[in-house]
């Protein structure tokens, strides 16, 4: 997959702000540049960053952070309408419960917890992603969707959008893994968990996204059926998405 120099935007207050443009989708048409952006949270953007977003024409921001996350790091960007689509970060709570129960959480257990989280995106959080698609279908005005790190909730949302546009699964996976190149991890607090465990939490692995996509295949028979049944994105809606977001 060729790397485009404009895919990752060098913002000061966000390290994982990326354009989904350029990937080949349905009928050999490419995803339009400067329409669909994914990011880590926007609460640390500088004035220059905000001007960059304004120059891109970004007027909509979809926030997958949970209620507490959103309240802790709010943001207000001039000219950008915010939409809260909360998906609570259950893996962190589950790990806290295990630690409080006296268990030593291993990296492999953490991987398994992350896989469970991704399967929950498919089965328990479809309504949030369906709402995102409602807005995608309304207009092709540039938008950004994000969570805290822009890697898990955001990563699955990006996969759904790209696959709805006909981008192959292997290319979607490559886009997903770009987080490991761009996201600036916070300082690791080893008093809370071993470094190896924290490293699993703050990066992405193929195993994570595969858990979700395999669940889609096994439980729905494939992405088109999942999109239609759970996200209300059937053939007509996919044609409209292609008209809006493919060149």
UniProtKB/TrEMBL annotation:
Signal sequence bounds: none
Database matches in Pfam families: Y_phosphatase3
Domain Tyrosine specific protein phosphatases as annotated: residue spans: 127-184
UniProt KW keywords: Hydrolase
Species of provenance: Ottowia flava
PROSITE patterns per record: TYR_PHOSPHATASE_1, TYR_PHOSPHATASE_2
Documented EC number(s): 3.1.3.48
GO MF entries: protein tyrosine phosphatase activity
Protein name as annotated: Tyrosine-protein phosphatase
InterPro entries noted in UniProt: Prot-tyrosine_phosphatase-like, Tyr/Ser_Pase_IphP-type, Tyr_Pase_AS, Tyr_Pase_dom
The protein's enzyme class: hydrolase
């Amino acid at each position: 997959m060729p790397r485009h120099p404009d895919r990752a935007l060098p913002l000061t207050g966000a390290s994982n702000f990326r354009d989904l443009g350029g990937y080949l989708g349905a009928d050999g048409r490419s995803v339009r540049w400067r329409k669909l952006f994914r990011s880590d949270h926007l609460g640390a953007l500088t004035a220059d960053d905000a001007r960059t977003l304004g120059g891109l024409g970004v007027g909509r921001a979809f926030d997958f952070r949970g209620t507490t996350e959103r309240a802790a790091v709010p943001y207000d960007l001039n000219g950008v309408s915010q939409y809260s689509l909360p998906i609570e970060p259950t893996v962190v709570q589950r790990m806290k419960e295990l630690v409080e129960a006296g268990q030593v959480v291993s990296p492999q257990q953490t991987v398994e917890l992350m896989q469970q989280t991704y399967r929950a995106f498919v089965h328990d959080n479809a309504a949030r992603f369906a709402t995102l698609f409602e807005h995608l279908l309304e207009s092709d005005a540039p938008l950004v969707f994000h969570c805290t790190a822009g890697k898990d909730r955001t990563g699955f949302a990006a996969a759904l959008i790209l696959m709805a546009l006909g981008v192959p699964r292997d290319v979607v996976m490559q886009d997903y893994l770009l987080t490991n190149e761009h996201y600036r991890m916070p300082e690791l607090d080893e008093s809370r968990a071993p470094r190896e465990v924290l490293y699993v939490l703050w990066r992405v692995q193929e195993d994570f996204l595969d858990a979700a996509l395999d669940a889609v295949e096994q439980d729905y028979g494939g992405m088109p059926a999942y999109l239609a049944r759970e996200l209300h994105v059937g053939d007509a809606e996919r044609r409209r998405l292609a008209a809006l977001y493919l060149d």
